[in-house]
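Tutorial sheet, problem 5. The two components below are modelled jointly, 228 residues in total.
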Amino acid sequence: DADVTQTPRNRITKTGKRIMLECSQTKGHDRMYWYRQDPGLGLQLIYYSFDVKDINKGEISDGYSVSRQAQAKFSLSLESAIPNQTALYFCATSVGGKGRTDTQYFGPGTRLTVL
Amino acid sequence: GENVEQHPSTLSVQEGDSAVIKCTYSDSASNYFPWYKQELGKRPQLIIDIRSNVGEKKDQRIAVTLNKTAKHFSLHITETQPEDSAVYFCAASKAGSARQLTFGSGTQLTVLP
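Model answer (structure tokens):
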């Protein structure tokens, strides 16, 4: 969906480097998510956020941190990248509250390679 | 936590035939089951979803069935077309968990012309 954008789209970095992946949305959704996709493993939830003040760990949060700078922006950081963090990363958004539909809308993904 | 298993991992069908992908889930409290389609190099997109108060839902050539007793749900695609070729993911979630989706491992569907 064009309303959810991710930067960068591709990134190659070296072991030990700090890297930040950014997600922005113009959908006005309050809930945002970060997923990791590995071949044959589907999508795994890293972190999710209900709103700017509410951030929660997902099933694979170790080695990652996040920041919700505004309702529209949710960043994922790898403080010290390691090769097994090489993956495709997706941001997603959904509507919470009374207008909740549960549908998650995904960004285009960031392909991260850690050498 | 929830565990979702998806089968088969790959599926090839002739154009015009039907395709069925099956998922099982472990948490009986799960009550929302979406299916996502991911074309090569693109983002996952929701194609259909079902809630636990419904046994079946259809949308043109796509249908999803849910068996709460057995804790499994299936995606049915009829009259398959080459553009149906993609990876399909099932997922499950329950209320009160920010709708944390637990995904299956995906099925690569190939529709042969």
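Marking note: Chain A touches chain B through 25 residues (CB under 8 Å). Full credit if you identified this.
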